[in-house]
Automatic annotation (TrEMBL):
This is AAA family ATPase. It comes from the Bacteria. It holds the Pfam family AAA_5. Residues 165-295 form the ATPase dynein-related AAA domain. CDD domains: AAA.
Amino acid sequence: MLLYGFVYEVSDGAFDELSMMAVTETGHTLTREEGRDTRVERSPRWKLSRDGQRDLAAFIDTCHQARANTTGSTRMIDISPELAADWDRCADVFIEKATSEAGMRGTPEEFSRRCVPTPRSVPAIADVTELSVALPDGRQYLPRLINGMADVEVLKAANRAHIAVALVGPPGSGKSTAPLAAFGEELVVLDCYEGMVREDVVGALLPVPGQVGDFEWIDGPLVQAMLQGRPLLIDEAAWMPPGVQALLHSAMDEARTVTVVDRPGETVVRAATGFSVLTSHNPGQGFGLSDPVLDRIGLIVSVPADLDLATDLGVPPVLVNLAKERHHWVENTGDHTLWVPSLRELLSAAATESVFGIEFAASALTAKCPPEQREQFSEQASRFMRAPTALTAVAP
């Protein structure tokens, strides 16, 4: 996390205390005076933009010029991610580095440029592919590139700028994993299904466990994410019925509110800074995203299946080649009803192959294909191996 600020001295007559004032790339203003706890402020209307970051840094420059007891110039200091949530430690590190003239002298223009990078300012592809991200469950995620920028950084910047993002691609392509890599346990997830209703989104009165006849209001994922200032992933969003999708309109607008008429207490919920909406869906499935929701989405990102990764993860090449051929078929025809094995299914087939052999694994994969497409899939597979049939138990 990048900080832009300065250090100054406060004398109490006995000894001098070093204090500091800085702004962060996340729009926070940090102030520590006379050894007190760090004060942190951020406007609820703040959102990432180059002009906004430049204005924050210009404010720091004005404060720096107004103080005659500063210890040096304004500086840009990079704080490690593990300290980003501990504001007192951030202030300590900033004072320590600034007084030793670490970091670099900065300007509002340079601070804004570094906070809102262009594709040319991110690491080269060879460097990005080495920057794996640890997921909350211990797995590692390898970022992809979106117009030259690591996908996790694109999602973080979009969140800070209140820009809604739609991730579109086949099952198992990583649409849900990328947001998890970007936001970790901060991410709120709303899983969609065909029969979902309003209460699944905004909340409902639910029975209190162990107390007969007692009910309490439980906020739904949308309301939780808005109140807590957290990113919301609407997973498989195309399965959300159009009438339920209408609940998202005002939350995704500049107003960033949602009205829940039966919610006890405050019925108008206002989004805290940090709330943004991400959606994921498979093309050609479900109800699709409504036009009003699509109109409010700023970034629509295609997330294709990374079948080359399947080979690296030990999937037999013959199964990878079969999946690639069907994937190319979908791309050429635009027929998204054609079943293509997902990366998850290919990894399952690899585990099956290690136990039962390649023909058994091909039959297991065929069994996952929709019945009406199995004959076609088997015929296509026959180009790479003996034509598989779905696993079937028969009398000896």
